[in-house]
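ARCHIVE RECORD
Type: protein–small molecule complex
Small molecule: erythose-4-phosphate
Source of inputs: curated submission
Record status: active
Notes field left blank by submitter.
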Amino acid sequence: MKFFVDTAEIEDIKELNDLGMVDGVTTNPSLILKSGRDIMEVTKEICDIVSGPVSAEVVAMEADAMIAEGRKLADIAENIAVKLPLTWDGLKACKVLSDDGMMVNVTLCFSANQALLAAKAGATFISPFIGRLDDINLDGMDLIQDIRTIYDNYGFETSILAASIRSANHVLDCARIGADVMTAPPEVIRKLVSHPLTDKGLDQFMKDWAKTGQNIL
Ligand code: E4P
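STRUCTURE (tokenized, with ligand):
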């Protein structure tokens, strides 16, 4: 499973990218607001750091304006994936931009039928939002499983980009189901390393090592 990092914070992207943990980046208008940066500038900076797809989201609501914004965003760098909302206009823009050879990430997906439409419109990525479904007491992971089944049934090439990931268990469940990509905030990716038995075992090893009185260097 590929790891995308869901942030527009440059220092976090650099740190995780240097560790080989970043196959791509996703941003959205809320993350751009949080960064306090200009969308064109910060997106260009991210594209210079990361070689994989970097999603940048349009904010227009109507297809022609989405297409114009998408083309402007795609001009930032070759690895831009234009992010479009899962509306009828978003699907129209998806078809035009993907036919033009651009990578498209269709976002705000909350049903398997929406994912089916995005695949038929030529989306490169579909972004089902797990956490936001869990927030309203629906099972976000059921949606990932349904989309996996439907895409495999018909050989759709659209990649499932599991989004709105809030926990290590979300990451594990997505990997078990076979999501192609997951995008998570930096803090969730860092938390994947934690295990109490690792900490306990290391603590014991350090205590015993001190008793040996030895040094390696
Ligand atoms: C994905 O592309 C979105 O930017 C993101 O995963 C949304 O996550 P949230 O529901 O935690 O805001």
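CURATOR ANNOTATION: Strands lie at 2-6, 24-26, 54-57, 80-85, 103-109, 125-128, 159-162, 181-184.
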